[in-house]
Amino acid sequence: MYQRHENLEQFIRVARTLFQSATLPEAGRQLAVKVFEHLEQPSDDGKRNSLRYPACDLLDSALAPLLDDTTSCGDAARAIKLLAPAIGWQRRTSGTNGSEDYVEKHVNGMICGPGGTESRYDIQLGFSLLAPHTRYPDHRHPPEEAYVLLSAGEFRQRDSDWFDLGIGGGLHNPRNSLHAMRSGSTPLLALWCLLV
Ligand SMILES: [Fe+2]
Questions:
Q1: Which pLDDT belongs to residue 128?
Q2: Distance from the CA of 37 to the CA of which of 14, 118, 179, 194 falls in 20 to 30 A?
Q3: What separation in Å is there between the alpha carbon of 118 and the centre of ligand 1?
């Protein structure tokens, strides 16, 4: 029978705290409550996306500024570092207005979700990692989504101006609503969760 590793338990505990932060809109916190209720039940079909991509090499430098941080963001960075060898990697290749080389300059790390550390299909919990000066494409998807930012970086919803959430800040993307993110001079690292 599948048993969840303590490193993953620790990450889920920390992420649960982060996604209940007052910096998240109420709708984002409500979504996260449902996601983490699902996660009380471990489930894994063992299908890990083990292929690595160039942007995976940015993970250490994205985590480094937080490793000595005593807040939940620091806890999250330390937990991700421990999990790194077991993360399932994937890239987005669809959407519009992404920077020219965004495919090479980003990667999505699946922790709980299809092909992830705990491969399952009811929820997704993971992160996006963007190299400096990278714009992720405008995209939309049927499930609503909550984000918590763990670095500098900017977001855009529908046709809004770009805005910076600040480290530990959160966002909620309603179902099928257009959104995007972009990095400045440092890597962008943002946790997300969805109920599928
Ligand atoms: Fe999204």
A1: 98
A2: 179
A3: 20
CA of 5 to the centre of ligand 1 (A): 27
What is the rounded average pLDDT of the residues 99-119?
97
* Residue 191, strand partner residues: 127, 148
Query: Does residue 1 lie in a domain region?
Result: no
Residue in the structure block whose two tokens are 């048993």? 3
pLDDT at residue 127, as a whole number: 98
Domain that holds residue 115: 6-195
Q: Is residue 62 part of a domain?
A: yes
Average pLDDT, the chain: 97
Residue 31 binned pLDDT confidence (cut-offs 50, 70, 90): very high
Q: 171 alpha carbon to ligand 1 midpoint, in Å?
A: 11
- Count of structural domains within the chain: 1
CA 179 to ligand 1 center in whole angstroms: 7
* Alpha helix ranges (H) inside 22-164: 26-38, 59-63, 72-83
Which pLDDT value is given to residue 129? Answer: 98
Q: In angstroms, what is the span from residue 43 Cα to ligand 1's centroid?
A: 23
CATH code (residue 188): 2.60.120.10
